[in-house]
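Q: Sequence in, structure out?
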Amino acid sequence: GAVLPDHEHVELEQTFVLEGSLVDDDGEVTPGQYVWRPGGSRHTAHSPNGCIVLSFFLKPNKFFD
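A: Exactly. Output:
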């Protein structure tokens, strides 16, 4: 799997899961599902067994240490 560290979506982010799953505090997104986050949202995410997603960003995410 993989871990996406703490980050903020500076503007709208849209993600469509093609394969595997993506998990964060809001739940699990599986193949065929779509999720979006408004600008200013902050979270961490992980994929227990890996995943392939199609994501659209208006601006790059801001990552925190």
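The mean pLDDT is 95.
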